[in-house]
From TrEMBL:
The lineage of its organism: Eukaryota, Viridiplantae, Streptophyta, Embryophyta, Tracheophyta. This is 3'(2'),5'-bisphosphate nucleotidase. Coiled coil: none annotated. It holds the Pfam family Inositol_P. Its EC number is 3.1.3.7. Keywords: Hydrolase, Magnesium, Metal-binding, Multifunctional enzyme. Its cofactor is Mg(2+).
Amino acid sequence: MMKVQKELLLSDVQSKSDKSPVTVADYGSQAVVSFMLERELPSKSLSLVAEEDSGYLRNERGQETVQRITKLVNDTLASDGSCSESPLTAEDVLRAIDNGKSEGGSHGQHWVLDPIDGTKGFLRGDQYAIALALLDEGKVVLGVLACPNLPLASIGGDTQHSSHREVGCLFFAEVGAGTYMQSLDGSSLIKVHVSTIENSEEASFFESFEAAHSSHDLSSSIAKKLGVKAPPVRIDSQAKYGALSRGDGAIYLRFPHEGYREKIWDHAAGCIVVTEAGGVVTDAAGHPLDFSKGRYLDLEAGIMATNQKLMPLLLKAVRESLEEKTSSL
Ligand SMILES: Nc1ncnc2c1ncn2[C@@H]1O[C@H](COP(=O)(O)O)[C@@H](O)[C@H]1OP(=O)(O)O
Ligand SMILES: [Mg+2]
Ligand SMILES: [Mg+2]
Ligand SMILES: [Mg+2]
């Protein structure tokens, strides 16, 4: 994935109908994960709720892109050493991508995948994540978050110039069993916990790098009410949930602009990674996120995450800031 990030060509990037970018890496990652899940869980019929579909790839202009993705997928499976079968054809790859069309819901088990979360960060050479979760009867019971560019050392405010530049973190959480972090090369497994800060003035917070994804004005007003002194830490993708789960910062604020609908694959893995590390994730009204409603989350105004001690204070500050915003309109 990191090699693809470095070598990405202009022609490898397309624009979707909602104007967000999608790359050969997004499609390739979805095909690989879908293919692996099918292979590892042969006895069950797979239900996968995933971001991408093959629509664009199946039209004429997509032909070249499909060839490129097919090569990437086969190279990846071969380098992993886990593939003894013959190489996948373009049609196999398109079918693996389209496995992700499930509607999810409150019954049975559904895998939830964002093959590349934070595509804009990926294109910039910054943070991105591969996020996979398992829903059981509408609840997230398992979450895995791979963050190939996230430093193993803390990225919290005052440690940003740390000399430890090693990157690549894997977070995983299972309901009732806590959250663990491992380096992507497989060494050093540790159990992680959210920050224990109780004084909001000492807290630092994460938000989107992209101002179009989350209102920076609103989070700055909330931070001011809490007396937060540190400047916001702005990074892309669910890497924010990962960083929060190990206490790099104490708060995550996300307030998309009017009309944006949050998707379950953008939060399912991150949510359990934070809650199993002792944190709380809610919408702006303080309700837990409901992953049982299909491909979209149905929620009020925004998403926030912090530790249990700070949540009541945060909720109050969010309420006040939202009221001020409404009355100023
Ligand atoms: N207009 C938008 N507002 C909010 N989030 C968006 C918007 N467009 C895309 N996203 C999604 O928000 C998430 C990244 O936001 P951030 O990095 O700011 O946390 C990604 O899941 C991204 O999708 P994608 O998975 O396609 O990158
Ligand atoms: Mg996308
Ligand atoms: Mg995403
Ligand atoms: Mg994505």
